[in-house]
Amino acid sequence: MPTRLPRWLRLLPLLALPLLPATAPKAQTLTAVLEAEIVTLDPHFTPAYITRTFGYMVFDTLFAADGQGRIRPQMVQDWTRSEDGLTWSFTLREGLAFHDGAPVTAADVVASLRRWGTRSALGSRLMAATATLEANDTKRFTLVLKEPFGLVLDALGTTSSPVPFILPERLARTPGTERIAEIIGSGPFTYSREEHRTGDRMLLRRNARYVPRAEPADHLAGGKQVRIEALDIRVIPDGQTAIAAMRAGEIDYIQYAPFDLLGALERDRRIRVQSFSGLDQFTGHYRTNAASGPFADPAVRRVLLHLVDQGEVMAGFGLSDRYARSCNAFFICGSPYESDVGTEPMRRPSIEAARAALAQTRYAGEPVVVLVANDLEAAKISSEILADRLRRAGFTVDMQVMDWASVLARRTRREGWSVFGVHALGVDLHNPLTNSVIGFNCTNATTGGFHCEERLTPLFAAFAAAPTLEARQAIVAQMQAIIYEQGIAVPWGQFAQPAASRVVLENLIPSAIPLFWNVGKR
Prior knowledge:
Oligomer: single chain
Shape: globular
């Protein structure tokens, strides 16, 4: 086992960090460690969660989701919709300004939405249904649809990454395939390259020009009142070191508390552990390769429905019922689209049932290549448990261990892999149009396991056009039945990745996406 360094030595790199120029007063600075270093700052360029977190701090959105998942106006003051649902007119609220002092205009909005539409699956569907999107004057813009699209506000207020953040028009005209040259938003915090040390820390300051909405803060919606002067984001990859720094009073907030330390943190009166539920939880799936190997056969893939024991995976994480649950709903439990359609084989998982199901297929002992990411805890444990159960059910298993970047590179190939474990947030997975597991069905993308189930294609379009929640729920049930019938992917559990914060923080908004407005520091 590796030798643990003394506590004072583990803290030494943190205490020796160089000061940034003109740092904010310490009493008014909140110091945070996020899931990873913020590398990509262009909020449209990548779907990476850490870039989305940065985006919500520095940029703003037209609409936003409240704590109940309802879409509320944010930059928009009011809007109208024609009786046929095809013409939407929006008016921006007063007081919106970019960090360089320029007012936010309708032209900025139009250019930003068009750029976002080239990077987002949901945005591309909205743009495909759009006839015109034009600015009427500095404050008003109009969206005219050429066909029904029942998710206009859901798209403009989506939390699915990349989010439709608003940029200055001159930056939004940058092609989506290129990164913007400057980071200028209109959000509650400002960014400065001079106060960003790559690999070390980033200092975001309170935007003195920001005019919050009048309503109280409610998750991503409402008034974004910033009660701190600066947000100091430290790069500390090791969770043990970050927790030691928190206990020493050097760190105020850690986005992902290590699973194995949760019990100790819960007993520490100086620290508050924040759990999450519903859309703020992660759901894990086993992704399968339909292009080659044993899982090219849907009958063999369906064996996984009998094999996967979500309780065993969650136990492997060491998570209690407070943080984890079994969930057979493909579009996650606790969402508007939770369904039990097609889940019968998954309700009583067993090695024996899987072995019997495998015997009914044409499987002849070909190797199943299981990719195991050794640098992501959830992906590693879930894949290792699957490899063990596959062997016990009668599969020949070739378990290949590598880092996550190598897993992502391998999955783009049609050969050389069969299955791996991965997880994503419910805010992305609960909607079929933003669900990354099935979002690349029958496309040329190399990230979807090369699945092509033609029955799903018209259902995506029908979901987008459906006028009511009830209609969308019926369509989702049809999709889930097809997904499990074909064994496209199998969930391995739904769980929270708790955050940890010092008790000196007040009014921290509970969210899996870290939010630093509304919070104060005693």
